[in-house]
Amino acid sequence: MTRTSSTSKIHPRAVTPVSTAPVSKQAVGIDVSKDTLVVCFSQMDDRQQIYCKATKRFANHKGGWSALDRWMKALCTAQVPFWVVMEATGVYYEKLAYYLKIQQYEISVVLPNKSKSYFQSLNIKTKTDGVEARALAQMGLERKIKPWTGCSEIMLTIKHLCREREALQEHVTAASNQLHAHEHEYHPDSRTIQRANQHIKLLKKQIAEIDRQLENILQQDPELKAKVDNVCSIKGVGLLTALIVISETNGFELIENKAQLVSYAGYDVVERQSGSSIRGKTRISKKGNAHIRRALHYPALSAVRYEGQLGDLYKRVTLRNPKVKMIGLVAVQRKLLVLIYTLFKKNQPYDPNYAKPN
Q1: pTM beyond 0.70, yes or no
Q2: 152-220 in CATH: which number?
Q3: Would the pLDDT of 356 be above 90?
Q4: DSSP 8-state class, residue 8
């Protein structure tokens, strides 16, 4: 596909002359941050030439979204396909995406690793918000991107509850450590210890409330409950782990294959090797969803002990890397993630003898 001559030299504020040829497609790229939206409106003519029509910056709140809506409608050509493209980074894009979805826009939310690969193909050397917005717009024009449908209400609720529970559990750990320090200090104050115990008790009560709420939500959706039960048939994977992985991936809505899932969770392997002088350590990127990796840590420890095939995988990896046993645990975590994905998609329970020869 033909690109503009300035493809590898994208400038955030450079507005190229609009073509006189008929417009065949138009796209808006949005680089989202906590407070601002950097936006680029681009069009493609019927000769497949791409032109940046306008760029602008908006505030990332409801007033800014309304202004963005008016701006896009004023620029767009009627009866021509129109896409809005943004990255799935953090949580700052979510409210904007849902707002634009309600306004009947066609939206694509791309995973960061996918957009990064596209940016590299353009040989972009400058990294700014404006450059990324323009590159996202060009991506929407050149590539066929899967439409974003958003989370269902139930999946969104589960994700928020799981994250709230995770935060409360971290508070319990911190409060327990503080209580331990108070109990072993010289001349501890009884009221301080009493308040610490009350605080921990309150936190645990709130965690129990969230657990009951999650159970009630599953009871209201028999289809989702059946899939979660299949995932929980893996030894070591409990209800909370299954719900975290499923909700953080929106039921694997944006995931097209196992490799993409591994990259999304930050389990993709990074190597640094060049010639004979550079031989860096092979490691996982950790450039992905930390909630998923955190949720799989303890299930991997349990699976190593009680699930034969995963235990064998751990042994094989640790034999190759006897000094760093964590490499074996990471391999098991990655395998668990792929198993959860497979069982959820196929809606089947785990068969421990599936891969064994007859």
Answers
A1: yes
A2: 1.10.287
A3: no
A4: G
Structure tokens given for 206? 């709130």
- ∠ CA 59-62-65 to the nearest 5 degrees? 60
Report residue 180 as tokens.
């331990």
Give 268's contacts (C-beta < 8 A, 6+ positions apart).
Answer: 113, 259, 262, 284, 285, 287, 288
DSSP string, 211-259: HHHHHHHHHT-HHHHHHHHHHTTSTT--HHHHHHHHHHTTTTTS--SHH
Query: Has residue 208 got a pLDDT over 80?
Result: yes
- Structure tokens of 296? 């799989």
Phi–psi pair at 308, nearest 5 degrees: -55, -50
Nearest to 50 by CA among 179, 142, 154: 142
- Give the C-alpha distances (Å, rounded to integers) separating 340 from 31, 143, 186, 294, 348: 32, 30, 49, 15, 10
Helix 153-183 / helix 190-219 crossing angle, nearest 10 deg: 160
Written as six digits, the tokens of 163 are 């994250």
Comma-separated ranges of CATH 3.30.420.10 domains in the chain: 7-142
With beta carbons less than 8 A apart as the criterion, state whether 41 and 28 touch: yes
* Encoded amino acid at 92, one letter: Y
Q: Which CATH number fits domain 7-142: 3.30.750.24, 3.30.420.10, 1.10.40.30, 2.30.300.10?
A: 3.30.420.10
Cα–Cα nearest to 207, from 174, 238, 243, 161: 161
Cβ–Cβ under 8 Å, residues 52 and 5: no
User: Is it the case that residue 35 has pLDDT exceeding 80?
Assistant: yes
How many other CB atoms are there within 10 angstroms of residue 191's CB atom? 8
